[in-house]
């Protein structure tokens, strides 16, 4: 018997990524954001979602992918891998799928940079490759040191 995972998939550039459904709180249209001075470059701002203030991470920036088409309207995938919810800015949400561990493969050798540390596994789907992100690692932005001290995101 094989183990299955339920995964929420989304597109960034020409890639298909996913996070485990248990880490996803909800998917919403992009919300108005408040810029945060001196925030890490991956943090695009803060949003107020029904009274809950949360950071929004530009996943393209986090994975070192090129900037999107300016006419493109991004989507927020709200993840909560721990106690704090965080928004992930993605190009579009695809589907919720089941993946079998028997379809799990090695990470592509061409995958370089921070993305390699943030991706837990690669799954071979019938028509393409899906890269499973480690939601806890993705939202763990490094501590930024400022003149007034360290800020933890």
Task: Give the overall shape, derived from the CA principal axes.
Answer: globular
Spatial gap, N to C terminus: 40 Å
Oligomeric form: single chain
Run of helices and strands:
EEEEEHEEEEHEEHEE
Helix percentage range: under 10%
Structural class: mainly beta
CATH class: Mainly Beta
Determine the number of helices (DSSP H or I, runs of at least 4 residues). 3
Strand order of the largest sheet: 8-1-2-11-10-9
Tally of separate domains:
1
Please mark out the parts with pLDDT under 50 across 5 or more consecutive residues, or reply none. Answer: 143-153
How many extended strands? 13
CATH superfamily: CheA-289, Domain 4
Reported by name, the CATH topology is: OB fold (Dihydrolipoamide Acetyltransferase, E2P)
- Please compute the radius of gyration using only Cα atoms: 16 Å
Report on this model:
The chain has three helices and 13 strands; from the N terminus they run E-E-E-E-E-H-E-E-E-E-H-E-E-H-E-E. By secondary structure, it is mainly β. It has one domain: OB fold (Dihydrolipoamide Acetyltransferase, E2P) (Beta Barrel), CATH 2.40.50.
């Amino acid at each position: 018997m094989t183990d299955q995972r339920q995964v929420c998939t989304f597109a960034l550039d020409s890639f298909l990524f996913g996070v485990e459904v248990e880490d996803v709180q909800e998917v919403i249209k992009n919300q108005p954001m408040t810029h945060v001075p001196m925030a890490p470059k991956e943090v695009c701002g803060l949003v107020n979602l029904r009274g809950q203030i949360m950071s929004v991470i530009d996943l393209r920036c986090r994975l070192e992918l090129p900037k999107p088409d300016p006419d493109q309207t991004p989507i927020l995938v709200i993840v909560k891998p721990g106690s704090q919810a965080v928004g992930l800015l993605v190009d579009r949400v695809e589907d919720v799928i089941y993946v079998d561990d028997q379809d799990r493969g090695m990470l592509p050798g061409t995958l370089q940079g921070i993305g390699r540390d943030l991706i837990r596994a690669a799954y071979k789907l019938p028509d393409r490759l899906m890269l499973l992100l480690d939601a806890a690692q993705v939202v763990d932005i490094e501590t930024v040191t400022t003149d007034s001290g360290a800020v933890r995101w």
